[in-house]
Amino acid sequence: MLNRVWSIAIILAALATSCILFLQPSLDQVNLLPDQGAAWYFWKRPDPNFASQASAWGGYLVHQFFIWGVIIWAKKNREALKDRTKLHFINWVALAGTAAFGLLHFFQTAIWYDGLAQNVSVFSSQASVILLLVVVLMIEAPRRGVFFGTGGKNFIGVKPFLIKYHGYYFSWAVVYTFWFHPMETTWGHLFGFFYTFLLMIQAGFIFTRVHTNRWWTLTLEVLVLFHGVVVALLAGQEFWTMFLFGFLAMFIVTQMHGLGLSRLLRWLFGGLFLIALIVIYSERGWGQAHEILRIPVIDYILVFVLTALILIIKRLVRKN
Q: Please, are residues 87 and 5 in contact by the beta-carbon 8 Å criterion?
């Protein structure tokens, strides 16, 4: 039953994403303003009004408090949710809420075409997801390490704190990103909304074995690679290789470990990564190869900085 509902939820997420294409006639009526550079979010209503803003922020706030309410209820009643092999009432509530808010955002886009992007920086949405992925690295570190299966012991002290509170941040990052964008029909938006639906499905399976399935959670981590590459290519940006090799490097160095893969298979993945890197940069120019370090360096710095901050705060709290 659990796996069947999980499979159906993923299929429904794909169908819901496909339904966004039906918004095209409404989207054609919106005359977007000219692009004004990297800090400008192109897909936002040119003439926002009270109704358009209220619909975006109202939808976001109700959705946000709904999912936080689900988390709070589940944590308070965790004794009744011990059986991780079946769906509980709260899972059905969370999944139904995901469907309802997806439908609400669909009609909100069709009628008002507005999002949170009207009032906040375009970088805030990107940063929220980046930080989410960094926290995942920290949570998973005791199991799979940080660098080629090593270094995980350094994160044992922060994992209980992150397990206890990560749901509140993760749900904020996902719901905020969901309402940041109108439901547009570009390939980048479609892939992004499908990815967001999958992350909301992950939240819906709280306190079930689906929520901690290592292959499923790895898939959610790795999908950001495809999203980043697709968006960069469609925008005509030459640094799509930064996303491709940056996130692939994260997979080789950290994410593929702890899965029980044989040493031979891991060496094979590493070899294929190096071959692809040599082929691409032999043509692209080795002077650009430094770009593949940007994402890993930023992520690993954040991992260690946040870990240090959490440990310091925990120590200060104990002293007081």
A: yes
Sign of CA pseudo-dihedral 64, 17, 132, 35: negative
**Residue 284, CA distances (Å) to 101, 114, 238, 278, 288 in order:** 44, 39, 10, 10, 7
C-alpha span between 136 and 302 (Å, rounded): 12
Distance CA 183, CA 18 (A): 11
pTM for the full predicted model: 0.91
> Coil, strand or helix: which one is 178?
helix
Q: Taking residues 37-50, what's their average pLDDT?
A: 85
Distance, CA of 210 to CA of 1 (rounded, Å): 12
Question: For residue 308, how many C-alpha atoms fall within 13 Å in the half-sphere facing its CB?
Answer: 6
Spatial separation of the C-alpha atoms in residues 194 and 20, rounded to whole Å: 10
pLDDT of 114 above 80: yes
* Structure token digits, residue 96: 């139904």
Spatial distance between the Cα atoms of 197 and 176, rounded to a whole number of angstroms: 13
